[in-house]
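re: ur question from earlier - yeah i can do the single chain one, its not a big deal. heres the input i used so u can compare w yours
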Amino acid sequence: MIFRIDSIQRGHFRIVGELTFDTVPEATKKGLALFDEVAGELCIDLQGVFRTDSAGLALLITWMRYAQENNKSLQFFNIPAQMLAIARISSLDQILPLAGKQALSHLSSLAQDKKLISPVS
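and the output i got, formated as tokens:
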């Protein structure tokens, strides 16, 4: 069970390791403690996450709620494909604050969905 949060610079964090049912309780506590020390913007890079499950996705939702309740902006970078797939199945990808290419990919996906459901004139 490997997990850690690296503080890259003020408000920017990198998650490394597993975000699973085994690590998420600790990740929740450590993340919220670190986020309390930051005013304003939070950027979380998930590129170092090599294993995750639905608990990892629940963690992102918890952090997102925390940011909203504490008037902080939050963006997730490099969400692992496995986690993004779980988010898409449950339509949670539509509320996650994605950044970079994943945000653009998400918008493109929404546009494709609209084409599929738009009535043909």
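The first strand starts at residue 3 and ends at 9. not sure if urs matches, ping me
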